[in-house]
What we know:
The structure holds 2 protein chains of 2 kinds.
Chain A: H1 9-12, H2 19-24, H3 27-32, H4 44-53, E1 61-62, E2 70-73, H5 79-88, E3 92-101, E4 118-127, E5 130-139, E6 144-146, H6 156-166, E7 169-172, E8 180-181, E9 229-234, E10 246-252, E11 255-262, H7 270-274, H8 279-286, H9 294-309, H10 315-343, H11 347-368, E12 377-378, E13 381-382, H12 388-413, H13 416-422, H14 430-436, H15 440-445, H16 452-455, H17 476-499, E14 518-524, E15 529-536, E16 542-548, H18 551-561, H19 570-577, H20 581-585
Helix pairs in contact in A: 8-9, 9-10, 10-11, 10-17, 10-19, 11-12, 12-17
Chain B: H1 3-38, H2 48-58, H3 69-87, H4 97-101, H5 104-124, H6 128-159, H7 164-174, H8 180-196, H9 215-219, H10 224-249, H11 260-287, H12 296-318
Helix pairs in contact in B: 1-3, 1-10, 1-11, 2-10, 3-5, 3-10, 5-6, 6-7, 6-8, 6-12, 8-10, 8-12, 10-11
Amino acid sequence: MTQSDGRSPLAGDSPPLDPAGSSANRPQAGSDEPSARIRRFDWLSEYLARLEDEHVIAHRGDARILAPAHRLVLDPEDWAVAAKLAAAMGMRHAGLWADPLDDGLKETDGAEVDGEPCIRVRACLEQTGDYLVIETDIPLNRPLLDSQAHIYPGLDRLERHAHDLTGVVFTNPFDSAQGKPNTRRWTRHQAWPAERFPLRHDFPLSGETARRTPADVDYPFVRVQGAGVYEIPVGPVHAGIIEPGHFRFHAMGEEVLRLEQRLGYVHKGIEKLAVGRDPAGLIRLAGRVSGDSTVAHAWAACQAIERASGCAVPPRALTLRAVMAERERIANHLGDIGAICNDVGFAFAHVQCARLREQWQRRSRELFGHRLMMDALVPGGVVHDLSADAFLALRQDHAALHRAVEPLFDVVDDHPSLDDRLISTGILSASDARALGCTGYVGKASGLRFDVRRDNPYPPYDGVRVEESVETEGDVAARVRVRMAEVRGSLWMLDRLLDALPEGEIVAPLPTPAPGAQGLGLIEGWRGEILCFVRFDAAGRIARYFPRDPSWFTWPALERLILGNIVPDFPVCNKSVNGSYAGQDL
Amino acid sequence: MPDGLVLAAWLIAFAQALLYVALAPLLVGWVRKVKARLQNRRGASLFQPYADLRKLLIKETRVPHTASPLFRMAPYIVFVATWLAAATVPLVALDLPVARIADIIVLVGLLALARFFLALAGMDVGTAFGGMGASREMLISSLAEPAMLMAVFTLAMTAHSTSLESVMSHHLADGFVLRPSYLFALGALLLVALAECGRIPVDNPATHLELTMIHEAMLLEYSGRHLALMEWAAQVKLLLYGVLIANVFFPWGVGREFTPLALGLGLLAVLAKLALLGAALATAEHVMAKMRLFRAPAFLNLALLLALLGLLSHVILEIGA
């Protein structure tokens, strides 16, 4: 049994709310994993005890529905307390999303709010690689819930996003004005009326009006005032070929006093577009959440669907997915390293990286049908198999790239005028990175070693060593070094994956999911941990899809790491974080 | 000088001024080409800057609503002032009448005039970028100008004249003498030229990042023929500095008589010198990253220091020698 098959009868037998029992009941899952990680969820009993001390009642819980995550159902009034206790135990928040159950389908596990339509809010927490999903139901006609954002600041935008799309009003219980709701919109801009919520059932899929969206002119930016402080609005349209996003700087001379981002300009309604799709249609959509992470997002959605429906994916398909995911990682890291150098006027590295990346992507197109490997994954497997010739070509590519990047990385790592720009620029402290929940190269450059591939390994990563690439400086140079280490690590891993490529089918039929089946996908994309939630409706179509790109947490990190830097250093700081606009705007 | 010769001298001076405007895009094209080759790219054609200027000249010219008349005037003033400044620097021939009208101080003044209007135009529209670019340009130029004056004064002290022509004639008459003061002044002028022309490591002419720009930030609101004139002026300025360095420090080859042969040789010589200088510039830009903005003052202070050393070494080592 593998983790993707979390709904096995055995795991389902585990008694709810019994962490010791559930970990004892997962010996088979453990047998696939490195021995050091057998004792999973050894912290959960302590968390439950602390909840009990605070008189918080966790109604139901199980390890089955959202495996490999544990699930706890809480009362709405305990929502903030649960977050506070989680933070006290050092858990990382991995995302929050709301799911309006107003379509008459909320029988999934018998949870009803007095028979009334409700909105189910879920939040995902992580500790030592184990995931815990807490959820609560709030009535649709009075959707008020305590905010967790004052405990986990990275959640602020996710909560505002949930409000814009489903109408949940988050209030701050610790605010002096007792329960003052957070009314600043995030994703909506002016694209739909303020009192309409697109993810609710009564909102038509095609949208309500075809009118031109008015400009979003009165967003309440926080102002900094004082003699010599001036404001620099940048974007949403930029001089370069990048995605749209607005940055509001307050600067004194050249020093940045405050940066506030305004994103949402590429909101495409991904979550609404997913409603009613079949699994294959959802994967095509998932591949378009963020074009540069198409494999990672598609894999996360596949994983969620396959876990929800109990599909046993052929091992060969899983290894091929990992090959594509690592190829994506290498391509993007190469592009980023070059782009960071270009932003400080060092064109040599940019051109060399662009050349290597281009060759790499041409091979991807040849073998996987698309330069970015879009639409190469399908539910239950992959589209393209690797022939023996392709296998050899890949091995040669890896050796060639390895030969090419070593001297290049030596230059990037040890060039005085480059060092002068990158070292000590844009420092993100470990505490800020932890508070915001940064993963991927942003977290790793600030000393957080978390990597889903190692800490909650999904096949085929359970059978291959994932190199640890952690730096502690947290500056732009550290983020470049993490990327270089990941390129080397992924190249090494690609060879191991190819050598161990299992024989067999590359796609398995997807079983019809049970009505209301849910699944959680957790993938280490090249930007970091991607979380993906999928819920089916009664007809086996998608009722809710939520992809949480790592950019939700790295964009706020940029607002912090830029403080005290000078305005002309912003582009290189921004590039070193390289959040996805599309992945965050959804 | 007979009247006929005076007329010929004026004609040559005029032709030389035209040559500046005509050659300036070629130098930029050459630098870009060498850079591209250094990066293993094929690069655009040498004549691409001409095509770009032509494209901009025939495109519609838009002016922001908030612009004052100054915004429309500035491109012409900047272009003409830069052009006039260039006309005072001997390109292919010495003994031209312009040299008697304008000396080095006029040259520096004309460049300052162009810069003044460029910065005003950048601030005129009221966008954050224009103001930012203007403030940075002023930061750079306030440090670059003294360094440049020091460097040219070093030369002027040797020739006992602030006229570029006398400096070059003096240098030619002396033959090849290795003067420490000249070496220091050359170093200072090279650094100043990099800063003044907005090259790496001070500014990046190829960047698209509005927040890091200096020169480009002031031009962001310009379009069409206004933008063409501004860019052309920047190209003329680069050529001006190139010729200043090439002809003042290495004057050999410049035409001293108004014969077609001498003038042709002068042109060939200056083209060869500029090609070398352009290649050196491209190489330097290739191996360096741009400096942090606040390192630029240190860079220009180095230029000032070199110029001062040049002056001192002239006083100590060369006077009376």
